[in-house]
Amino acid sequence: MAKKPENLSFEQSLSELETIVAHLEQGEVSLDDALKQFERGINLVRQSQTKLEQAQQKVSILLNENDAELAPFTVEAE
After folding, report:
1. CA distance 28 to 23
2. Molecular function terms in GO for this entry (predicted)?
């Protein structure tokens, strides 16, 4: 049984979505199976979008936490 979308990492969700799209693009799937896979894909997309929004909020909070301006990163020559 497939894991629930909320229990997958972002990368796992993306990988499964790629597999679903490739399978559906082959066109050799029954209508019922195609609908089930489509539904699974929609759930994966929604969970992935939620995870991305949460990550964006965390980054925003971290950047605003110190309210300091960030300096460009430069690599020192060795």
Report:
1. 8
2. exodeoxyribonuclease VII activity
pLDDT at 5: 78
- Exposure letters 5-40 (e unless 16+ CB within 10 A, then b): beebeeeebeebbeebeeeeeeeebeeeeeeebeee
Residue 2 DSSP symbol: P
Report CA dihedral (66, 72, 73, 76) to the nearest 10 degrees: -130
Residues 16 and 41: their CA atoms lie apart, in Å, by: 8
Question: How many Å from the N-terminal Cα to the C-terminal Cα in the chain?
Answer: 52
Is the pLDDT at 78 greater than 90? The verdict is: no
Tokens of 41: 């894909």
